[in-house]
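Researcher: Next sequence.
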Amino acid sequence: MRRLITTALLAGAVGLLPNPTPADATTTAVGCLEEAIDSCDDDFGGGSFYIVAIRGYCYMIRAGWCAAFDS
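Model: Next structure:
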């Protein structure tokens, strides 16, 4: 019973906290994508079919990595 009351009080206290302001995801996402495109173009230059495919995967991986860990 004590755990139930404590949990209810804790949930009420969390509900009273002010709402956090959301992060500006558009600026971070655009910055990460531009950085990924520039670095992948430098690392995988050329016009071969395979290089273009590798560069596309590089864009996705590096943009995702940047958005997940650098924000």
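Model: Residues 49-69 form the longest helix (21 residues). The mean pLDDT is 83.
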